């Protein structure tokens, strides 16, 4: 299994609680997205297992990235 895919999954799962603490853990979704893309690329090119882990980490990273920064935008615009 690709280590990059596993790291993507770990960072994606850790980014979900980061929604609440977006000031402290705001970079975890971005790291999950980057490692998810790299994990998908490595598993495809080298034939490693871990496509599901990389894809799950990527999706979790994207969803938490969007939610976190929408919350940040809402907080910034409320008077």
Describe what is shown at a glance.
The protein is mainly α and 79 residues long. It is built from three helices and no strands.
Question: Can you put this structure into words, describing what you see?
Answer:
- The chain is an all-alpha fold.
- It has one domain (3-77).
- It has helices at residues 3-15, 28-46, 51-77.
- α1 runs parallel beside α3 (51-77) and α2 (28-46) runs antiparallel to α3.
- The longest helix has 27 residues, at 51-77.
- The protein starts with a helix and ends with a helix.
Average pLDDT rating: 87
Measured on Cα atoms, how large is the radius of gyration? 14 Å
Q: Main β-sheet, in a few words?
A: none
Count the E strands: 0
Output the helix-strand order: HHH
Instruction: Count up the domains.
Output: 1
Low-confidence stretches: none
Can you count the helices? 3
Beta fraction: under 5%
Q: What level of helicity do the residues show?
A: over 70%
How would you classify the helix and strand content by structural class? mainly alpha
Shape: elongated
N-to-C CA distance: 49 Å
């Amino acid at each position: 299994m690709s280590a990059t895919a596993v790291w993507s999954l770990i960072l994606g799962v850790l980014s979900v609680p980061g929604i609440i603490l977006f000031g402290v853990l705001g970079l975890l979704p971005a790291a999950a997205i980057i490692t998810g893309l790299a994990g998908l690329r490595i598993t495809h090119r080298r034939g490693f297992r871990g496509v599901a882990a990389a894809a799950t980490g990527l999706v979790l990273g994207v969803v938490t990235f969007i939610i976190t920064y929408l919350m940040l935008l809402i907080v910034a615009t409320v008077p």
